[in-house]
Structures are given as C-alpha cells and as structure tokens.
Amino acid sequence: MVDTSVTLSGLRLDNPVIPASGTFGYGAEFKEFYDIDILGSFSFKGTTREARFGNPTPRIAECEAGMINAVGLQNPGIDHVIAEELPRLREFFHKPVIANISGFSVEEYAYCCERIDREEQVGLIEVNVSCPNVRHGGMSFGTSPEAAAEVTRAVKAVTTKPVYIKLSPNVTDIVAIARACEEAGADGLCLINTMLGMRIDTARRRAVIANTMGGFSGPAIFPVAVRMVYQVARACSVPVIGCGGVTTARDVIEMMMAGATAVEVGAANLVDPYASKKIVEALPAEMERLGIERLADIIGCVE
Amino acid sequence: MYKKGIYTILSNEPLTAAVWRMTLAGDTQWITAPGQFVNIALAGRYLRRPISVCDYDERTITLIYKAVGEGTAQMSRMTAGAELDLLTGLGNGFSTDVSAARPLLVGGGVGVPPLYNLAKKLLAAGRHVSVVLGFNTASEVFYADEFRALGCDVVVATADGSQGVRGFVTTAIAERALDFDYFYACGPLPMLRALSQAVEQPGELSFEERMGCGFGACMGCSCKTLTGNKRICKEGPVMKKEEIIW
After folding, report:
1. pLDDT tens across B165-199, in order?
2. By C-alpha distance, which of A196, A194, A197, A241 is closest to A222?
3. CB contact under 8 A, A60 and B48
4. Is the ipTM of this complex over 0.95?
5. Is 0.90 surpassed by the pTM of this model?
6. CATH tag, B3-90
7. DSSP symbol at B242
8. Same CATH topology for B3-90 and B103-243?
9. Which residue out of A112, A113, A131, A190 is catalytically annotated?
10. Which of B210, B215, B229 shows the shortest C-beta gap to A60?
11. Domains of chain B, residue spans
12. Which CATH fold would you assign to the domain B103-243?
C-alpha cells in the first residue's frame, strides 16, 4: 500500500490533488458527478469583499491544448460565501477547504482574510495576487516584489491560518517575487496562475474574448509551470503548491519531483468533470510503476 | 442532474449544405426537458461543443448542428458506429407545464432544433401548436415538414423571400396574424430581441454563449437578468421573457 499523503504547513492531505480555484466553484457542481471527499482538498472560487459580476461575455476562447478565460473574478462576495456557500459545502465535503481570496487593494485582501480566518472549515488561505491594484494604475500586485510582500504582510497580520500566495507567471523573475513573499511571512506559495494570452477571430478581425486578453491555461502551459515550480522550490524553503496544466497522475508526480508538495488541477476539471477523481485514483498505480512508496519522498528530488 | 457517458453514432447526415443531423444511442435518462443540451468531447479539441437536443427517447438522442467551425466540421465527418463522449442533461429546458392552450414556437436557423421535442411534448399535452421558422433563404430551410408531420401549423419565413413569408419571424407573426397565448423561442440574439419586443404575450427564450465547462463551474457564460446573475449553461439556456435584460 503506497502512501499518498502530504502536509502543507501542518495541514495533512490524504493526497496532493487539489482542484484549482475558478475551476471548481464552491464544490456543488462536482458533487453531482462524484464524492468530492476523495480529493486532497479544493481551492474555492476566488472571493472578494463585494459581489462581482465580472467581465462581459464572451469570456472563453479555445486554444490548442488549452483555453483562455476572462471571467473577471465573478463571485458572490465574502459575506455570501460565509453565510451560504460554506454551510452548504459542509454537507458534502468533510475536509478542510482552501479559501482563495482576491482583492483590489491591500485593505480588501486583509478584510477578506480576517473574515475567513474565523471559519473552521478553511484549512488554508490562498491569496491570489494576480488582480490589478486599483490604486497603482491597475498593475497586478503579483508583478512587483514590494506589492506582493505588502499584501502578504497585511494578510499574515490578520489570520493564524497558513497563508499561501498564488503567484502570477506573467513576470520577468518569479523567483524574486516568491522570495519577497517568503520574507514577508508567507507560509507557502502556489504557482502558476494563468498566463496572459489572446486569440483573434480572423473572420471578424477582432479578439475572441470581450476583454481582449485573458488567462491561458491547460496542458500547453504545463512545462512552463514545472519550470517555475522548480526554480521557486529551489530558491525558497516554504512549501510550494504546483499548478498549471496538470491533467494526469503522471503530471502530478512530475510537478512534485520539480518541488511541489501538493498539486492543483485546473482547466482539466472543465473539460472532464471527473479529471481530479481520475487523477486521485490513478496515483497509487503510477507510484507503484515508478517505485515510489511514499509520495512525500519525491518532493523536489530532481537536482 | 447531468452525467457523462459514451454514445454510439447511429447516423450522421446533412439536412442542408451546412446543417447536419446526428442520432446517437446511449443512456438518455438524464435528459428531462426539451431545450436542454449536451456537451460533446471531440478528439484533438480542448473544449467540448455544446449542442442543443433536438429530440430524444428512451435510447436515442437526435442532434442537429451547423458546421460553422473546425469542431462542428469534424463532427460532420464522423460516421455511424463511432463513439462520442457526452455530458447530458445539461441546463434548464423549456417548461411544458405552463397553462397556455395555444403556444407559438419560434425558431431561427440552428435555433430550430430544440423546438422539435418541445412541439411533441406540447402536442401530447393536447395543445394547439403553431410554429414559425425563420431562415435566410430557401436552401437553408430544414424541419418545416417534420413539424407539419407532428401536426403543428407551420409558417416559414425567409429573409430573401425565396420560400414562405418574405422577411423575419416577426414579419410572419404579424402578416399571418397568428393567434397564440404563450411563446417559446430559440435563435440568434437579434431575433430573440425583436420577437420579445414585438409580441405582448409571455414566453421563454433559449440563449447561447461561449462556454467553458457547460455545467456551471467556470462562470464563462454568465449574464445579468432582472432576477440576478445567471449562467446560460446552468440556470439557462432557457429563460423567461420577463427576467431578461435586453
């Protein structure tokens, strides 16, 4: 019997498979397909202080081996999530959930994290720093080491739960930003968020997506994610959650060998609602095939 | 409820130069209302293709689709015996329990198909069903005879006047002074908008949008309505006239 368990800052997961934020809602859509208790955990839809409708449609564009989305953080707001979604989730998910928090100012991040800190169901807070900072010309918090560190400090000051910063790959040096977050007190890091992309409808001579650009995800970005996880895991000592294009159990193992302690599955859930379940179920056989008894042993094994 | 399953193609044939009809065999128990859709995985295409259900029975599903892009063109090349991975039972379909005695069904182009099973259900419930089908030109007309064979009163409108009433579905409704107390519509957005503004009767309309997942997870197809934010794939694709923000 192989051991698939991993531990993120004291939070023990039965397996490292975590559906990524924005591809799993608040869990309800997937419980129709399978018992989601088999997952390590899942990261709920990025939540902000106020309810947001998000961007105009079309929000989705298909790509070769992936997709672009520009949903624009549609969510019902932190109060609704705490009052409605978490109690509902409690009925069909009996493990700690990961709270994905977004904000457009440092104060908003801190407010949301302080609110979610009181929720027993939340095992870990994942802070999405890819949102634009409205007070600084809309530049993403995650593209500057100083801004990412400022968010990290503000969030750490209001919660005792582990704080993981979810990093944007749309930067010149992700290691510098990862280090800045670690120095500011981040308990861990999650990477990568989507890569900025664009498609054009050549017949209509305009962007496919109403927002023009959006986040590219899917198997096409997997090698980029593995590379960045490898670079960050070597440079930092906090745990890393690997994310980006993961589709199979083999991808999970590859991501862990690159340095990830746990692995998020994103776009794959949208094209095959059973994707995360299949990965969880395929992991033991894949471990046996590769002679891995304890999954945690392979974390960062590649020199 | 919605489920994923493997379906076998029984037939796949053209109805016009660009519109195809595919029948599939498999588990249909998750389809509970006309106007719902399936989401089809295609080899080599990352996202599934959402296609409305034209008709279904205990063991078969009929889909009518237009080959507009590479994915649907790929579907049109598939042959009997091939298998497809479908999510079925998606979306909220048309409500057939409204008390209308004389419903009008209005379809435009590839918006016509989901009205076919709806017509069957309404006729079975003893309603008098009128149908207006709008197309660009005579060569694009399909299913007018199939609706007639069910026992519906059918009016065809073509934009160029090459068949039936010259003009849009709204022209046909006015010209023929069609008598109805409720309407069901599916078609391009400009048609839905014009129809909704032209008629006073209550009704429901089926919308489309680019989708990521088709089952409510990605929020890719959201829209605002007078009764709150809705996902076309989950709370839709069918919505009541009175809740729509045009």
Report:
1. 999 999 999 999 999 999 999 999 999 999 999 99
2. A194
3. no
4. no
5. yes
6. 2.40.30.10
7. G
8. no
9. A131
10. B210
11. 3-90, 103-243
12. Rossmann fold (3.40.50)
